[in-house]
Amino acid sequence: MSKRTFDLLCSCGGLLLLSPVFLAVMIWIKLDSPGPVFFRQVRVGRHGKPFRIHKFRTMRVDAERSGRLTVGVDKRVTQAGFFLRKYKLDELPQLIDVVLGEMSLVGPRPEVQEFIDCYPPDVREKVLSVRPGITDWASIEMVDENQLLAGYEDSRQAYIDVVLPIKQRFYLEYVERQSLVADVRIIFATILKVISR
Questions:
Q1: How many domains does the chain have?
Q2: Which family does it belong to (predicted)?
Q3: N or C: which end of the chain has fewer CB within 10 A?
Q4: CB of 113 within 8 A of CB of 83?
């Protein structure tokens, strides 16, 4: 079975199976704070092609005016958003992006152009040679990334100098060793990590 076939089967099945959860979360977001249900942001996809990612909105609608990174206990995050972020439920709408072919279930997480520009050229070329994913080993290992950044005075620079190099190592390893078996392992490891929280 090809990776794309696996992605399509799982994402379509996931959207169908999780439709009651989607509905409940959408109602909660609308009741919790004013604004749209989904957060759409331009990310860099395969071969550098930009696309608009789907996520459940977890912050106030004007949140990006004060920066893109979420650090520590961020006051911009809504009450529903704290729960959705903790259990990674805000990422579920990316199943739509998998169906559309913009993303894969497993792969390097898609970044905004601002941070892609910080990649060394050779690393950027290799990482962008595959579809970005909903989850990967970096996401599992750095699940509390915002708490890590809270320990630095300049969170943006810390993300560039400390977090990005770690993520890039995971991304490169994935690209070089990717397989369907590895994807299944990462998916189950992600589920276990979320449950353990």
A1: 1
A2: Belongs to the bacterial sugar transferase family.
A3: N
A4: no
| Cβ density class 83-112: b for 16+ within 10 Å, e for less | bbbeebbbbbbbbbbbeeebbbbbbbbbbe
Measured distance CA(25)–CA(55) in Å, rounded:
11
Query: Tens digit of pLDDT for each residue in 68-88?
Result: 666 656 788 899 999 999 899
pLDDT tens sequence across 13-59: 999 999 999 999 999 999 999 999 999 999 999 999 999 999 999 98
Per DSSP, what are the bridge partners of residue 52?
A: 42
Q: What are phi and psi of 134, to 5 degrees?
A: -75, -35
Helices 19-32/79-86 angle, 10° precision: 150
Quick one: CA dihedral 28, 187, 121, 100, positive or negative?
negative
Contacts of 161 (CB under 8 A, 6+ apart): none
Distance between CA 142 and CA 145 in Å, rounded? 5
